[in-house]
Amino acid sequence: MKKIDLLLGISNIILNSDDTDTTLSNIAAYVKDAIGSDVCSIYLKNGGRLVLAATNGLSENAVGSISLGFNEGLTGLTFSENRYTFIRNAKSHERFHYFPGINEEPYQTFIGVPLKSREHEFGVLVFQFRKNKLNTDTMQKLLMAVAAQVSGLVLRHYLFSQDDAEKGLDDSERMEKGVPLSSGIAFGEPVMVLSKLVEKTHDNVSPDEELTEFRNAVDKTTNDLKELINKMESTSQEIASGIFETHLMMLNDVSFKKDIENHIIERKKSASFSVRHVADKYIRRFRSINDAYLKERAQDIEDIATRLLEHLGAVSKEANLLDNSVIFANRLTPGETASLDLERVCGFVTEKDGVTSHTAILAKSRKIPAVTGISNIHNKLEYAQSVIVDGYDGVVIFNPTQETIEKYKAKMSAKHTQPEGRDIACQLVPLQDGSMVHFYANISSVLDSEKAGQFCAEGIGLVRTEIFYLRQDVPFTTDNQIEIYREIMRAFTDKHVVFRLLDIGSDKKTAYEADEDNPALGNRGVRLLLTDYCKMLDDQLKALITLHKTYPKIKILVPFIADVSEFFSVKNRAREIAAELGLELPDFGVMLEIPSVIYQMDQMQGECSFFSIGTNDMFQYFFALDRGNPMVSSLYKLDNPAFLSLLRRILERANSINIPVEICGEMAADPEILVKLIEIGYRDFSVSPYAISELKHHLLNTVINT
Questions:
Q1: Known catalytic residue: 664?
Q2: pLDDT in tens, 348-360
């Protein structure tokens, strides 16, 4: 048989068969007959072994039950040396491995050909002959061409077969242990946040309708890609058009579409959820292969998924949540949480958030139970109808039984809850030395501002203005900001309100902004404002300076200062804007977050009106500890003696130059750590408005009465 006929025959087998196991078996039979061998077998890598996946000539009972180590037998020799292997008198070879009962005895010649991609090896194609054969160049080239074609099929088998992480899942009760982010217990229904896709995960969809929606989206995406290809070709951009031709081929891959459709039918999921889930599965597999070309294909899948989701109307910032929704996500960005109706959220479960991440801060501030460190979070939701989130112990229970529900209801009732009424929140907190403890509020919404007023905050110590920026669907103009900031000021017209300039950090940048190799140390905070966001800085300064005329207690806080020159650059720009407007300049402060600025505090005397210590970032940069990484969460202990010593030194320096300083961050929201900060000498604290009553209750019953 000619080489071209042999390869065409294999192609026809692949094209006319959907089941990989059957296809491999048919190929083994076809190739055995075509080249005249007595046995053709296919071994595939499975974990740390080579498993017999198909054979024609050996016992069929051996398929799936016979396996070899990567260095075991002649097949292992072929795999480990990654080369075409021809051996005559195979039974006498020192590496020959005999399996009784599978009919190997009569074979003399062994030929092994690796199954591989450019850099990734995943199996061996084996031929055995009763007689000793000659090793010819023609035979070698033919069998290597066959192996290359079979490799394509095997690669697709690895990429499109069921994930190990999905096996063994059902709708029975399962418990997962993670890392607690925010205490409390929540009972609710799971909601998945995927990219900007929010989708309920239980059986509330019509598979027929979703299949129609999916197929329509495929047709529309196909048309989009064809139009792009025609446009590229008409403008002589053949290379670029080739990219979209690849996308078109992948979009119309039978296995890809069938996997999504099966997910819709069998799991009763929406088309958008199924597209995102299946696409993520393939992306993980492409990225796990040690082959640069194949890794790049992951981005092709992402592009296809995005186009499909756009046509399904699933990529949106709007999310209609039901009451008692438990939000599940790989990691939540501030922009994603800002788009959620938090009044309907009763819990958070994430895979990669750290103990001082935005999710943790938000959950603590709203007293919403939260857990992180739950791996393979997408797959674990496949059969989840209801969940319990235990933020005390960092436990998530999927599909809890009635017995478990009653157990956790009892646990929730047994937990002592502190009073939260105005009677506690509005009491003064005098100390034995005659000084007072003052509580200000950190806010991220107008609702937070209203709550701060209800809980008698003495002012607002931090307005996270970037949250309002990330939430906007319209340009964040000066007029737009003035309107938002007026809403915040309603409850605090006669108290100081500190507006932090846009602090677009590594955890807040949108998906459309350029990635950085080390974003936590990159172009963020004031660095971004003085470079890429100059126009935005001007707009924000104009808004705040304009409002200062009506609300004279407005203050401006400059974030992420590493060198005093950055502070003076911002303030000088503010002076210019104030002069243009004919208005007075508000007080300016500096957020102490980077250790280097501690040694420059005296240079700001006379220009800086106050300091605010951002304890979360200061701790991160002081200890070189990624505050968003759950793998090092156990090391994130804000009451570390060295860190408390640093805070003592900052207070001493601030007092020496007569500039007031406050603690800002979740550090002060811990009652025990709060007491230590008071002992050091701090009196001003900016915390979540929802924590004020609990903190005052603790101080009034411990520090005051001892």
A1: yes
A2: 998 877 665 667 7
